[in-house]
Design goal:
234 residues, alpha/beta, Rossmann fold, four-stranded antiparallel sheet, globular
């Protein structure tokens, strides 16, 4: 497995955010984590990427123990995160935002990487000189994904990519995720739109109150009555 999380726990002060979370992501897989607000989904991604400290358990990436390695080192190893809320650098140009994402790459590769991102997101090419803050929400989400892809990640962490977007733009973002999957990108996706996420994914995990309560092939989770009642409105 490319990523293996074993018995993971983390706290905010005395408040337990995650407890005993275990999951795996194989190379080339799209795995999704679904759950209600406050279930610990974002905290889990932030802990995997090194932005939250681990209080118990272990994280292994490509057979390396990265449990206590700093976030910057995890990026160099091949983990990139697209954060919830996009968090682009508004005053900077679209292209400069993308170049920031490629800070671990050799300078000679950046032009080629930019070309690949512009081919994936033609709107960004059209707006490359504009301040990132002037983009629409959907365009900013494209920029956030493109910025992460500039690092040439072996594992892409996507946190709520459809949040706050109009339905038409949600379709565009999920089409992009499907395209990335077809290209062989390994993805761990956190998404409140459980139906869309499970429809794309190979496997899924259901997180409640910081614990994994269900896991399995995505098709089986879609058919599970507990998932349907809690997350699909069926």
């Amino acid at each position: 497995m490319l990523l293996r999380v074993e018995g993971l726990a983390t706290h905010y002060g005395r408040i337990r955010a995650l407890e005993g979370v275990s999951l795996t992501v194989g190379a080339g897989e799209l795995v999704t984590i679904v759950g209600a607000n406050g279930a610990g989904k974002t905290t889990l991604l932030r802990t995997i990427s090194g932005l939250r400290p681990v209080t118990a358990g272990r994280i292994r990436f490509d057979d390396r123990d990265i449990t206590h390695r700093p976030a910057a080192e995890r990026v160099r190893l091949g983990i990139a995160q697209v954060p919830e809320g996009r968090r682009v650098w508004g005053p900077m140009s679209v292209e400069d935002n993308l170049l920031l994402g490629g800070w671990t790459r050799p300078r000679g590769e950046l032009a080629t990487s930019l070309g690949e991102i512009y081919a994936l997101f033609p709107r960004l090419a059209e707006r490359r000189r504009q301040p990132a803050g002037s983009l629409s929400g959907g365009e900013q989400q494209m920029l956030a994904i493109g910025r992460a892809l500039m690092a040439k990640p072996r594992l892409l962490l996507l946190d709520e990519p459809s949040m706050g977007l109009a339905p038409r733009l949600v379709e565009t973002i999920f089409a992009t995720i499907a395209d990335l999957r077809q290209r062989g990108t390994t993805i761990l996706l956190v998404e409140q739109n459980a139906f869309a996420a499970l429809s794309l994914a190979d496997r899924g995990y259901v997180l409640e109150s910081g614990r994994v309560v269900l896991e399995g092939p995505a098709a089986e989770l879609l058919a599970d009555r507990r998932v349907q009642a809690a997350y699909l409105g069926l």
